[in-house]
Each structure stands twice: as C-alpha cells, then as structure tokens.
Amino acid sequence: MKATTFGELKSQGYRYRSVRTEMAENLAAKIRSKQQIFPEIHGYEDTVIPQLTHAILSGHNIAILGEKGQAKSRIMRSLTTLLDDEFPVLTGTEIPESPFHPITALGRQHVAAGDSAPIRWLSRDERYGERLAPGSRIADIIGDLDPSRIIAGESLGSESALHYGLLPRMNHGIFAINELPDLDYLVQVALFNVLEEADIQIRGLPIRIPLDVFVCFTANPADYSRSGKIITQLKDRIGAEIRTHYPKARSVGLAITRQEIQNLIVDPRIIVPEFMENIIEEITIQARMSPVVNQKSGVSARLSIANYETATASARRRALLLGENPGHVRLTDLGNLFASSSGKIELDPYRDEAVTEFQVIQKIIDEAIREVFLEYFPLKKYEPTMDQVAKQIFEAKGLEISDTMNVESYRDILKKVPALFDFMRDRGWDSDSQTLACGVEFILEGLAVNQKLSRRKLGEIVSFKSVDIY
Q1: Which of 136, 141, 315, 397 has the CB geometry, 3.0–4.6 Å to 329, for a possible disulfide?
Q2: Taking the model in full, what pTM does it have?
Q3: Residue 36 maps to which CATH number?
Q4: Residue 266 has pLDDT above 50, yes or no
Q5: Domain shared by 184 and 315, yes or no
Q6: How far is CA 262 from CA 38, 70, 312, 339, 342, in A?
C-alpha cells in the first residue's frame, strides 16, 4: 500500500536517492540484467548509447549534438525510463520537494509537522520537463517575482513572492533544453549555478534554492562550436558532449521509419513490398550523399517517414478508386513524393541555379531505384534478360503505365513482353495479380534508370521505349 504520510514512508523503509544516483543505479541494474537500455533508439548501440551510459554513470549533465532528425529529443525523453516508476514528494508545495530534503520555507514547515506531513507520488513522466530555447526567458526557466502576489501583500524579499520557472518545477527530475545555441545569453548565465552548484537564485533575493535536477541540452554541432553562440563558461560546466549520427545501414533507417510512421490506414489494407520500403529509405540515403543538397543542414529521418506515408496514401487512393483490397504500393506512387520531400531537402546555395528542386528530387529518386534494383537484379547476371525485355518493348512499340491502372492491365503487358517473367519468377512475384503489378513497375523503372529503356512522364502516365534499335 502506498504511503500517504512522511511517517508511513519511513516505516516502509523507503530510501531517498538523488536523481543522478537513481538514474545511475537503475541503469546499472539494466546493464547487469542485460536489458536493452533504450529499445526505441536504433543504430546507436555501439556509438551513442555507450557514451550516454558513461555520462549517466558519471552523474554528468549532457549536451547531445547532432544534425536534424538524429533522435536527439527522443534520447532525452527516453531518459525517463531510468527513473523510478513513482517518487514521493510533499503535498501542498509549489515545486516538488522530497520530505527527506525540503528546499523551500514552506517545505520545511510541512516537514516540521513531523510524521503526519502528507505526501503524494509523482509518475516518471511528471518528472520530465522540456523547453525550446528560442524565445525562452529567465522567468520561463528559472523564475521571477510574481506581481500578483506582491500586490496581494507578500514581501518583496520572501520566497512566497516568487513564481518558479520550469527548471525548479523539475526538482528531483530531468530538465531538457532543445537548441541550446539559441538560448538568450542572460538565460545562459542564469544556468551557471544550476550546472555547477546545483542551486538557483531569483532576481536579487538573498535566497538560494538547492535543486536536484539532471540537465540535458541538444544542439546542432555547427551552432554549438561557433564562437559567440554559447558562453564559454556554460560549455565548461556541461559534463559530457555526445555526438549523434545518421543510420549507418539502410536496415537501421528502415527500422526507424517503421517505428515512426503514423498515418497507415488499414481500410482498405495497404501492403508495402519490401523493395518499395528499401527504395523509400534509399531516397533519404541518396539525399544525404547528393552534392547539390546542403549537407550542413542535413537530411532528417522525417523525409523517409513522410515519403512512406505519402506513398501509402497514394496506394490507398488507387485502392479506393479501383476497389482493390488489399492495396499495394507501386513505383508509380513515388511520383507523388515531391510534396513530402520538398522542404525536407535543402538545396546547396552554391549549386547551379538552373537545376530546380523538382529535378533534384527526381534525380535522387532515380538513384535510389537504381541502387535497389541492382541489389535485386545484378547487372552481371540479368543483363541478357534486360536486353531481351528492351527488344520485346521495341517490337511492341512501347508501353504505358499509370498509378491508376488496374492489375489486369499488367497481365496484358506480360503478354507483350514475356521476358519480364524471368525477373518475376526469380522473386516469386507472379503468384498474385497485385504482386505482379508491383513487380512489373519495379522492373520497367529499374531498366529505365539503368538506361536500358527510355522513359517519359506526362501527368500520371509513364511511357517506356527501347533506347536501342533492333
């Protein structure tokens, strides 16, 4: 049974721990039992997570440095898993105070009542507070005098005249600031004491309030290292700087995308073939390597997520129009990705301005298709079959597909170009009509980006012709 008073809490043998000790001991227990420390964080098992582990075991405040979309905020929010399920604090105080360590005059007054002092229990989620740096003031983070209380008669020099900011309200918890370099200099100065002496002072009041808070920040590495963005003394007080990175393998990026997708509607059910998932993820990888994309800005994992959702929505629209259930994502659905890619890919300002954003995105999509197609159908093994397909398309005087074509139309394509079956059988894509349609589009697009076919897009229609004369 939960304790409701300080006396009951002591009689149950509760052991008070500071938040840093609590996190370090809970982390140690996870390591000892070989539990996964942060199960929702992918691709950092051998890089970021060991650094984070060392910082927590050391009791250090941390700064997480990385480009956009590298899970910095998710890492900070995941730190709550290292807190106890619940934490006891005094009832009736404005900020959380342990009955073992009251920090305000009101808290000490409650504890002076003895074992009858009432307590309440905070969940781990209530012990996490996050603030975005731009626009944040000292009053928002640290606190300030409350004019309404002064008008009501409170003394200017008393604690009861104070309004506490988010940081002291996270006492015995975790306080996080996103985009630290954009924090006003005066607020940065106000954080000196928190990081070094673990206390705060509000205005000119002769009152110092000790806090038990784990502090973490996020920042872009370029902004963090730029002179003048962060006061040197503040940097010096941060215990550990942890660098994040983009996924080193496509499979890791795909695991992140699958975890994060939000808008998959199952009525009708939409199936995303494995090669389509790989292409969508490869688009992001190609964007991160493209010389015309501003790599200092980075390419977020949100590009993969938004493209996955858009491709799925396109497949759903077709399924609704044609009465298909389940629907399948096809290559023609990638023609709708400009809307979800634009804005997430920032072009290099020094590029040739004649190259438009649409052309850049289309080139990146083509490179992604080419990369994945050659993994499924290596040129050395399949080039004779590719040439045969090109010859049959020449004899058929070209082919046309669109993102609203029904599956039976793809059977007609196979009658005109039977060499496509050689690709399909190797992958088992001739088992049902929907899979067959997806496979035909993949092969035709793959041959086009490998310059075995010419391709022309006009609205929803894509036409293919042989580039050779037979």
Answers
A1: 315
A2: 0.86
A3: 3.40.50.300
A4: no
A5: no
A6: 21, 18, 11, 17, 19
* Residue (of 139, 213, 368) closest to 275 by Cα position: 368
For residue 190, what are the CA distances in angstroms to 159, 201, 216?
A: 18, 8, 15
Of the listed ranges 239-248, 276-285, 355-364, the one predicted with least confidence: 355-364
Q: Which helix (H) or strand (E) holds 402?
A: strand 399-402
pLDDT tens readout for residues 179-224: 999 999 989 998 988 888 887 777 766 678 899 999 999 999 988 8
CB atoms within 10 A of CB 388: 16
- By DSSP bridging, strand 240-243 and strand 62-65 are parallel
Type of residue numbered 71 = A
Closest to 270 measured CA to CA, from 324, 343, 208: 324
Residue tagged 């039992």 (tokens): 33
* C-alpha R_g of the chain: 30
Secondary structure element (H or E) that encloses residue 318, with its range:
helix 302-322
Query: CA 211, CA 42: separation in Å to the nearest integer?
Result: 33
Which range marks the domain in which residue 292 is found? 247-376
The whole-angstrom separation of Cα 225 and Cα 260 is: 30
Q: pLDDT for 43-83, tens place per residue?
A: 999 999 999 999 999 999 999 999 988 999 999 999 999 99
Give the Cβ contact number of residue 284 at 10 Å.
Answer: 28
Same-domain pairing of 281 and 361: yes
Pair 11, 131 in one domain: yes
CB of 106 closer than 8 Å to CB of 94: yes
**pLDDT given for residue 325 in this prediction:** 82
CB atoms inside a 10 Å sphere around CB 153: 8
Residue type, 172: H
What the block records as the tokens of 245 is 């990175």
Residue 144, pLDDT score: 81
Question: Taking the CA of residue 455 as centre, how many other CA atoms within 13 Å lie in the half-sphere pointing to its CB?
Answer: 22
Under a CB-based contact definition with an 8 Å cutoff, are residues 425 and 419 in contact? no
Query: Of 98-112, 115-129, 342-356, 401-415, where does mean pLDDT reach its minimum?
Result: 342-356
